Amino acid sequence: MTARVRHDRHGVRQAWRDAARAAGGALVFSLPMLMTMEMWWLGFYLDRLRLLVLVVTAIPLLVVLSRHIGLEDTRRWRDDVLDTAIALGVSALVSTVLLTLFGTMDSRTPPDEIVGKIAIQMVPAAIGALLAKSQFGRGPADQDGDEPDERKETYGGELFLMAVGALFLGFNVAPTEEMILISFQMTEWHALCLVALSLVIMHGFVFAVGFAGGSEISPEEPWWSPFLRLTLPGYVIAMTVSLYLLWIFARLDGLSADGIVMATVVLAFPSAIGAAAARLIL
Amino acid sequence: MSDHRDHQFRRPYIEWVFGMISALLVAGLAGFLAYQAAFGEDRPPDLAASIERLERSGTGTLVMVMVVNHGDEAAADVGVEAVVASAGTDAIRKEIRFDYVAARAIRRGAFVVESPDVEAADIALRVHGYTEP
Fold this sequence. Notes:
The structure holds two protein chains of two kinds.
Chain A: H1 2-34, H2 37-45, H3 48-68, H4 77-101, H5 111-130, H6 132-135, H7 140-143, H8 155-173, H9 178-185, H10 188-209, H11 224-248, H12 257-276, H13 278-281
Chain B: H1 2-9, H2 13-39, E1 47-57, E2 60-69, E3 75-84, E4 92-101, E5 106-113, E6 123-131
Antiparallel strand pairs in B: 1-2, 2-5, 3-4, 3-6
């Protein structure tokens, strides 16, 4: 009986620790966005359909992310769904508390605006909450000195982590006006050079980090092999994530086709670095 | 050398397929940008404002306008003026400013005119000017 009570207490303590760690992760990841005025404005003027698409597409992404690096070493999908729900709940709470403290919403703010402001912040914060484990060290089992086995990442897993890495950096800058302003200041020559620089930096990270796991790079492999298998697909993922984010944040509205390409190339620069450095960041 | 080749051939087929598709997409992007850079025109902003529609509201009339930039360069701080001249009253001047109008892009805005019986024919739109972004 005493052992059971002790076990329950340990479980409750563990749950609180996980929740606190999730809140810390949410804070680290979403603080730049919580303190960005464009994100507050998007909360009330963003088309509700786009907000819905953001939340709906984020849920499967968060569940799969939880599978890769969650709050705990989960084994079942049900646990991953539960972790995602906890991450979203903690993120909503963190966003509500901070947005209220910053005075961006109060009791007179219309409910629609409150929901919009929290929903748009909740998604990046939830990614941070799930990443909490790798941001803030390991769980109790690891503190005992048991190093977890290096996960053997599949090729699909590598590309998925790249997408999360691209979202990680892309989310921070996508809502800002600077993204389109930079694209206005650039010529197509600049854009072409930026694509080349993005690829060079990406490839540097791909090589430096070595992408441990199933798709590792062996020293005998020629440079073009990981470039073709990892860097180029990684850049396409970064471009796709950038296009998605710019559309979600209504930054492409009214732009011509080449304007859309230019703005996407600009955002793809940080997104590509995020994608390639995913192994370092996540 | 044979070990090296063996190592490469051990890579799953799908990784090369993804790699090739990505290479084609990135080459397409680079080709598009290079074509635009080499053969694209370089005209300065060419701005035109027009009325899209009128909406009657409780306080008067909303004059929905759009600004089109036919040029190849973006314009910043674009000022648009509306002069509303209804019969029997003095002309009313209104101004709105657009942060940016990108090249070959459309931006929308609205003037709030207090009079409820304004017609499109009573309104003259003028683009004041712009700055470089």
